[in-house]
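Retry 2 of 3 after timeout on previous attempt. Resubmitting structure tokens to design endpoint.
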């Protein structure tokens, strides 16, 4: 935050303040200090909100707001762990499917239970969920 203040980058400073406020709000709500996993969950939620906002603003032809949300999303991504490639996600899904012996959609909860800690903040869980559904439906 200090480097953003010194460089005069107001958009980065504003985004960093939003991140810190969200983390602080979570601490107040839960009345405990946040772990790294909790902070990643907050950042992932903010990331998802920005993606949804970008989609909505694009539909409304509001390029100024799209640009703002994209710059915020870029900065939020810098604080998250490195995203996994699609091949790495597919490999983890197949490993989880074989480990649980999942054969139908009813077993999806077991598979997600194994994958969520491994993929939290490193992959879009909506995409992971759809991949698991397609693997279990075939």
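Retry 2 succeeded. Sequence:
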């Amino acid at each position: 935050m200090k480097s953003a203040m010194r460089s005069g980058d107001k958009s980065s400073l504003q985004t960093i303040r939003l991140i810190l406020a969200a983390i602080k709000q979570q601490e107040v709500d839960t009345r405990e200090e946040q772990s790294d996993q909790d902070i990643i969950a907050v950042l992932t939620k903010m990331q998802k909100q920005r993606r949804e906002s970008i989609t909505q603003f694009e539909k409304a032809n509001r390029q100024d707001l799209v640009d703002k949300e994209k710059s915020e999303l870029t900065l939020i991504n810098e604080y998250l762990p490195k995203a996994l490639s699609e091949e790495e996600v597919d490999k983890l899904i197949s490993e989880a499917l074989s480990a649980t012996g999942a054969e139908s959609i009813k077993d999806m909860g077991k598979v997600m239970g194994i994958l969520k800690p491994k993929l939290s903040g490193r992959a879009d869980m909506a995409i992971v969920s759809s991949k698991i559904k397609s693997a279990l439906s075939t």
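Attempt log closed. DSSP finds seven helices and no strands in the chain.
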